[in-house]
């Protein structure tokens, strides 16, 4: 049996991803350049372009392949009454790291359709699916259109958490996030009772 050695390229790739994560968190996506990432990682710019077609693709890999980012989404669904989950999300989105990561991923998806698809598949879709499943259990509704209502409610909940951070207005507080959760649940309960 041969010993399998990890290729030097894999170590270099992780160094690049780590440098990209650090620079995004430190300075934001707008200030990030391919040249800056290459310099921080100690590689040539062509090395980055060999592995990634764009800055957005590199940033998406940096965060989607890092199990620690974003830490508040380790579980993609609320549990129990959902209050602790929604407050944790509000805390995450109002933190410096959460703001930097989410803005970077949003910018990357706006620049490149293939990045948008990947971020949706690996990040957004599992979160929404978890919220929808939780809503279906929390507010049972067997009526026609219930799934669409639950999807719309999940969009409202996640959208409320993200919107203020993306628009650079006052972050949604834990109390505000909890109020949004209660409004969404009340709306679903009203619809289910019809």
Automatic annotation (TrEMBL):
Q: Which InterPro entries match?
A: Homeodomain-like_sf, HTH-type_TetR-like_transc_reg, HTH_TetR, Tet_transcr_reg_TetR-rel_C_sf
Q: Which keywords belong to this entry?
A: DNA-binding
Task: State the DNA-binding region(s).
Answer: 33-52
Pfam families, per database record: TetR_N
**Residues in HTH tetR-type domain copies:** 10-70
Q: What is this protein called?
A: TetR/AcrR family transcriptional regulator
Recorded source organism is: Leifsonia kafniensis
